[in-house]
Amino acid sequence: MTMSTPGGRRKPPTIHDVAREAGVSRGTVSRVLNGGHYVSPSAQEAVNAAIRRTGYVVNRHARSLITGRSDSVGFLLTEPQERFFEDPNFNVLLRGCTQALATHDVPLLLMLAATEDERRRITRYITAGHVDGVLLVSSHSGDPIAQELREAGVPLVACGKPIGIGSKVSYVAADDRDGARDMVRHLLSLGRRHVGVVTGPLDTPGGVERLAGYREVLAQADIAYDERLVVSGDYSRASGEAGARALLARAPELDAVFVASDLMAQGVLAVLRESGRRVPEDVAVGGFDDSPAAVAATPALTTIRQPWDRISSEMVRVLLAQIGGEDPAAVILPTELVKRDST
After folding, report:
1. What is the pTM of this model?
2. Are residues 339 and 302 in contact, defined by beta-carbon separation less than 8 angstroms?
3. Which of 84, 88, 89, 132 is nearest to 108 (CA)?
4. Closest CA to 272 of 198, 208, 214, 217
5. φ/ψ bin of 199: left (φ > 0), alpha (ψ from -120 to 50), beta (otherwise)
6. Exposed, middle or buried: residue 153 (CB in 10 Å: 0-12, 13-18, 19+)?
7. Cβ neighbours of 103 (radius 10 Å)
8. Residues in the chain with pLDDT values less than 70
9. CA 94 to CA 77: how far, in whole Å?
10. How far, in Å, CA of 13 to CA of 50, rounded?
11. Cis-peptide, bond into residue 6, ω within 30° of zero
């Protein structure tokens, strides 16, 4: 149903049109649009059917004036813009969160804040009430934005356990340490004894936990921790290449590498190829994430699968619950070893 103005321009349907079509009061329609409280099932069904027939679309600006909410959520990535386009994990997570929020008719705003100026601008925007809550991705220790948002009372859910900001921030994480343990055990089970590691950034939860898992399994196997076999990366392919070159120079006897992300593992595989090392015959390689980079690698990469769909849906669930007044919560999800041709 659409109305026409005297000039011929089609007028969008209003809440009054929906009420008339459904045979209910305007107040009943309003209650349905705001959660369905104190509305009978038959009236709710009639209103929803009328919305479909009329093509009515909620005026979010008008509703926000009444509820004090923006009815939108921010997806905040504290990384340089090029990392967003290079690392497939961010796109997978963004898509999953967008889909999970769509079932609640809540739009998602992408925010990139890599520099101090960008973080200041984004923090002002968020704390001014332009979004109801924030999904925080790739938080580094010492990054003040999570603490500032928490102190401002902004509902917040981090992807990965935040470092250095206390226990009052909700988060959803894969079990990074257990995933690393599974991978290193797998490499040792192949008879490898000179297992190197390219870590993630050691100011991020994934970087810290995956290195800890590597060290734990070596200790359990009575293999001495050798600093020559440990290099740090930043989850980029270039840092994987640099890490592989460093490992080969320091420890020519290297026979396996645990790489803390699939994208870095692609870089490791390229350098091993250039050096004449066969994978997996000479050097076995294991990654982490089970991102599209794992399948695209040559050879296909043995890796640790993070349950991205569940991570996305849980982040959204926990955030919406917090926006609704619930206390912060933490969710840790299991990982899975996926064996392919690189080991």
Report:
1. 0.77
2. yes
3. 132
4. 198
5. beta
6. exposed
7. 9
8. 1-10, 34-37, 58-70, 139, 141-142, 165-167
9. 10
10. 11
11. no
Tell me whether strands 303-305 and 336-338 are parallel, antiparallel or unpaired: antiparallel
**Contact yes or no for 181/195 (Cβ under 8 A):** no
Half-sphere exposure of residue 243: CA atoms within 13 angstroms, side-chain side: 32
Q: How far apart are CA 75 and CA 134, in angstroms?
A: 6
For the residues of 236-260, what is the DSSP string, one character each? SHHHHHHHHHHHHHH-TT--EEEES
Residue 14, class by beta-carbon neighbours within 10 Å (0-12 exposed, 13-18 middle, 19+ buried)?
Answer: middle
Beta strands in the chain (DSSP E): 3-4, 10-11, 73-77, 108-112, 133-137, 156-159, 170-174, 195-199, 230-232, 256-259, 284-286, 303-305, 330-333, 336-338
Strand partners, 4: 10
Q: Say if residues 248 and 219 touch (Cβ distance below 8 Å).
A: no
Please state whether beta strands 3-4 and 10-11 pair in parallel, antiparallel, or not at all (unpaired). Answer: antiparallel
Q: Which two tokens stand for residue 166?
A: 């206390």
Which whole-number Å values give the CA distances from 66 to 30, 32, 59, 325, in the listed order?
11, 15, 11, 18
Strand 156-159 versus strand 170-174 pairing type: parallel
**Span 69-127, pLDDT tens digits:** 568 999 999 887 787 788 888 889 999 999 999 988 899 999 998 888 998 999 999 99
pLDDT score for 66: 46
- Identify the pLDDT of residue 65: 43
